[in-house]
């Protein structure tokens, strides 16, 4: 298990293997008695997309840029809110239905900051971090198209 | 030299993951795109997609961004992670 960078309280991990939610929460809470709020988000592989049965996904990423873009998103969250620790895990490679794809965990003294920062990080991860999903469906393989709604969601934070 | 890398659907359409071009032939991301599109009809069609994104040295950039020797320039479709 990757641990936190003690300088900036941030953990970023791009990995093929699964993670255990309980372990990640424990890592956010360990020796962290100042923060009363822990917010976590888990994204999973759905069984259907755009009406087609999905059997799994393949996730590609751009090594190096992925980490850099997540660092930038996290830095912006740290500038906007008073938050403690931040953890982002994104899986790559082949994933089947129900598997965990992404984890975002944020701690803060009070809940509002952690809720907002977690949502902000996910919204910008969706439109800026260089990951691409290829769906394995009943009709063959298909690269997913980006959703306009994800762009609109991220734009909302600029207001 | 400038290293150029492609990802996901774009890499598959081009059947090419990376290539290099001489730095003295281009000055911006837009120049690189034009040069790549001139390779043949297929590449021209692929690069006519205005939704393609680009990055220099792992930072997302606009088309008018300047490039120099030693840069890594990436082209890829809109991202779909999370």
Topology, element by element:
The complex is a heterodimer of chains A (159) and B (82).
Chain A: E1 10-15, H1 21-29, E2 37-44, E3 48-49, E4 52-61, H2 65-80, E5 86-91, E6 93-96, E7 100-108, H3 111-128, E8 131-137, E9 140-143, H4 148-155
Parallel strand pairs in A: 1-5
Antiparallel strand pairs in A: 2-7, 3-4, 4-6, 4-8, 5-7, 8-9
Helix pairs in contact in A: 2-3, 3-4
Chain B: E1 2-6, H1 8-14, E2 18-21, H2 29-37, H3 41-47, E3 53-56, E4 59-61, E5 72-76
Parallel strand pairs in B: 1-5
Antiparallel strand pairs in B: 1-2, 3-4, 3-5
What do you see in this structure?
The complex is a heterodimer of chains A (159) and B (82). Chain A is α+β, with helices and mostly antiparallel strands and 159 residues long. Chain A has helices at residues 21-29, 65-80, 111-128, 148-155; strands at residues 10-15, 37-44, 48-49, 52-61, 86-91, 93-96, 100-108, 131-137, 140-143. In chain A, strands 3, 4, 6, 8 and 9 form a 5-stranded antiparallel beta sheet that branches. A 4-stranded mixed beta sheet of chain A has the order 1-5-7-2, with helices on both faces. By secondary structure, chain B is an alpha+beta fold. In chain B, strand 3 (53-56) and strand 4 (59-61) form a beta hairpin. Chain B is globular, with a radius of gyration of 12 Å. Chain B starts with a strand and ends in a 6-residue tail after the last strand. The model of chain B has no long low-confidence stretch (mean pLDDT 97). The interface between A and B is medium-sized, with 27 and 18 residues.
């Amino acid at each position: 298990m990757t641990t936190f960078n003690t300088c900036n309280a941030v953990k970023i991990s791009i990995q093929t293997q699964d993670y255990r939610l309980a372990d990640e929460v424990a890592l956010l809470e360990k020796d962290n008695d100042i923060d009363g709020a822990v917010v976590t988000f888990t994204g999973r592989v759905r069984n259907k997309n755009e009406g087609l049965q999905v059997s799994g996904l393949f996730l590609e990423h751009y090594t190096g840029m992925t980490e850099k873009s997540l660092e930038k998103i996290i830095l912006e969250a740290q500038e906007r809110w008073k938050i403690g620790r931040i953890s982002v895990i994104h899986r790559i490679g082949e994933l089947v239905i129900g598997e965990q794809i992404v984890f975002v965990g944020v701690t803060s003294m009070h809940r509002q900051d952690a809720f907002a920062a977690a949502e902000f990080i996910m919204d910008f991860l969706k439109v800026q971090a260089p990951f691409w999903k290829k769906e394995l469906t009943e009709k063959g393989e298909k690269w997913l198209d980006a959703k306009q709604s994800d762009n609109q969601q991220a734009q909302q934070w600029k207001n | 030299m400038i290293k150029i890398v492609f990802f996901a659907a774009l890499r598959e359409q081009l059947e090419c993951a990376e290539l290099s071009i001489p730095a003295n032939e281009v000055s911006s991301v837009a120049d690189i795109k034009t040069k790549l599109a001139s390779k043949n009809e297929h590449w021209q069609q692929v690069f006519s997609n205005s939704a393609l994104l680009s990055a220099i040295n792992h930072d997302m950039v606009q088309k008018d961004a300047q490039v120099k020797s030693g840069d890594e320039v990436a082209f890829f479709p809109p991202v779909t992670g999370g």
